[in-house]
């Protein structure tokens, strides 16, 4: 079976995050080389559900380092719906402030129109992140294992 490449355009809107978040200090120098550490890019798929919030919190506490950049991605069905966009923007702003307060990481947010699976893969291909974090959507142990396996396979296909 061969992978089908899609060259379709996708619509997105960058979310302007509040400027009240202080700028993170420059990352410290590496001991051996004397060069600045480059942070990792981490994509977190966000929606308005509790599992997405749990994945976000877990990433901040267990994965993020000071120089990292978190890319919040929210997939919506209609980008022209201003109410939907405003609600998503409010959520992203709240999460960006929390990310800075908890882990002092930079946050970039984007609302993208389309199927969540395709949107996440397109963003992963564009950003080339160190990690893509997804919530379990309330699934049990077996279903969660299948989701992780599918997510790994999908991301590997798009990044390799």
Automatic annotation (TrEMBL):
Q: Please give the superkingdom of this protein's source.
A: Eukaryota
One Pfam family linked to the record = Usp
Name assigned to this protein: Uncharacterized protein LOC106761361 isoform X3
Source taxonomy: Eukaryota, Viridiplantae, Streptophyta, Embryophyta, Tracheophyta
State the InterPro entries in the record: UspA
Domain UspA, by residue range, is 41-146
